[in-house]
Amino acid sequence: MDVTDFYGIEESPADRGSNGSKRLVKNWGAQFSTQKPLGLLNHGVTCYTNAAVQAMIHIPAVQHYLVDVLQGKYKDTINPRSVSQVLAETSARMWGLEKIAHKKGGPKFINPKKLIGRLDDINCMMSEWQQEDSHEYFMSLLSRLQEDSTPKGHKLNESIIYDIFGGSLDQLVTCKNCGHVSKTQQEFYDLSLHLGTSRKNSQTEPIDKEELSAIQQQQSLDEAESKHRFSINKSIRDFFSPELIKTDRSDKSGYVCEKCKKRTNAIKRSTIDRAPETLAVHLKRFRFNGNSSSKVKQGVSYPLILDLSQYTTRHEPVLYQLISVVVHEGRSVSSGHYVSHCRQPDGVWATYDDEYINIIPEKQALRDPSAYYLIYTRLTHKDVKQGSDVVKKATNMKPTPVPSSKAPTPKSSQPPKSLSPTTKKMKSLRAGIITPSVPDPSLVQKSPQAPTSRKQKFKGLKPTNNLGNLGGKQQKRYAKDSSGNASKRFRKY
Ligand SMILES: [Zn+2]
User: What segments bear the compositional bias annotation Low complexity (predicted)?
Assistant: First the structure.
């Protein structure tokens, strides 16, 4: 995959991504180009929210949406008392978009008191008095934004939040008895990856020589890049590799073929039908066992440019670039500390550690062994038609310069050419590009039904590890299970 075939971050002002969205704004644009957000005060143990909020508002599409919310563009949908409104106000203070500009020498952080006060509406099982799982908070916040932005009677995948984060997987199950292939689709909003040993049965369907040699080549690359670290490239490969669903007649587990009606072994494989514009990659560091939990402490390695082309249904060229890394330091989910490394609009990376902001070299952001979840933005292939309506943001909230963070800005504070550092590396990876196809509108995903009652209304995200048999017992806590039981985590709205 040649990265020069894709627009870089900030390269095309009219970039609305690859999935045909008309309202998505992929780049920071002039409004934010010189802006840097402020830090967030820690209320004791709320670093898990602060790290997630920084990762969230460093996604250009999300922040542009929040500005639109504040300007009343979504006033028919967004309740002024909603969490979305509070996040929009909080982010405007962070970015210095308020009328009262940040004064030079003024505070370098703000107090996210109002947002913390809404924790119950974001995830009612979480406490501001206790360390919680930052990824879970991030996904709960995402769910809340999605629900807030979905008008009554509409589907969640009509929300702009779906445009920003939503993807879908094709799941193919091949019956080992009659060869029938059953295909289903599932929306996803993040990828939850196992670290280390594959969760899958090693038995896989036969693959051809070419594919095998490509896999072996990639494996040796992965090993080289991460001698003592788990490689997320490997975890992703495991995630998308074929899985044997074993049948046990005694406990009636396994797969019942819809064609031959037999309970039989089957091969299950997932491919990406719709690659999301923003990809949240979660690493399963915390293992839960009854009431206790443990942490996988081993370091991880992750690339700046993530190539998912080989996992797509139509073999489209799909590249992502890293924009945030949320890091967990410490021994367990209930202790330790979260910080996030985020790419600022000018391309400079900074570590947001509650109130403190430190400029760091990109290299450092790319090599944090304690990474817990990663935010990638999809790069748009140059074959994708760019909108002629150059993104204009009719704004009367003029951004004002924000005092620089406490660390000195590196000398080369010019926006780096986003392509340059990776071009050479990526060029060698693969040649031959298939023209990306516009998603087929007939393949629209199944969407949760329109809400019926307030209690039932939350039909938000399903965890991506809930892929049939794959998820197992560790149903993630932000999820509402598909059985229709109202999740305890969401009691408001
Ligand atoms: Zn069959």
Answer: 403-423
Q: How far is the CA of 261 from the centre of ligand 1 (A)?
A: 6
- For residue 183, report the distance from its CA to the centre of ligand 1, in Å: 13
Residue-averaged pLDDT of the chain: 78
In a domain? residue 362: yes
Q: Per-residue pLDDT averaged across 388-414, rounded?
A: 41
| Å from CA of 315 to ligand 1 middle | 27
Phi, psi of 358 (to 5 degrees): -125, 125
CA distance 289 to 475: 12
Query: Global pTM?
Result: 0.76
In sequence order, which residues have a C-beta less than 8 Å from that of residue 251 and are 6 or more positions away?
none
Residue 218 lies in a domain: no
Q: Which backbone phi and psi does 318 adopt, to 5 degrees?
A: -130, 110
DSSP state of 53: H
The set of catalytic residues is 47, 337
Residue 93 phi/psi, 5-degree rounding, is -70, -40
CA 204–ligand 1 middle distance (angstroms): 18
DSSP 136-175: HHHHHHHHHHHHHTS-TTS-GGGSHHHHHH-EEEEEEEEE
Cα(375)–Cα(277) distance, rounded to whole angstroms?
A: 11
Residue type at 14?
A
More confident residue, 112 or 97: 112
Q: Which of 226, 351, 215, 245 has the alpha carbon at shortest distance from 298?
A: 226
Kindly state the tokens that stand for 243.
């899985």
pLDDT in tens, 113-150: 999 999 999 999 998 888 899 999 999 999 999 999 99
For residue 6, list its beta bridge partners: 381
Give the residue numbers spanning the domain of 350: 6-198+231-381
50: left (phi over 0), alpha (psi -120 to 50) or beta: alpha
CB 237 within 8 A of CB 230: no
Q: 336-354: per-residue pLDDT in tens?
A: 999 999 999 999 999 999 9
- The conformation of residue 298, written as its DSSP 8-state character, comes to S
53 or 218, greater pLDDT: 53
Give residue 254 CA to ligand 1 midpoint distance, Å: 12
The residues placing their C-beta within 5 Å of ligand 1, an ion, are: 175, 177-178, 180, 257, 259-260
> How far is 234 from 224, CA to CA, in rounded Å?
12
Q: Is the dihedral of CA 154, 155, 159, 161 positive or negative?
A: positive
Measure 46 CA to ligand 1 centroid, in angstroms: 51
Counted domains in the chain: 1
Would residue 416 count as lying in a domain? no
Q: Which residue has the higher pLDDT, 458 or 275?
A: 275
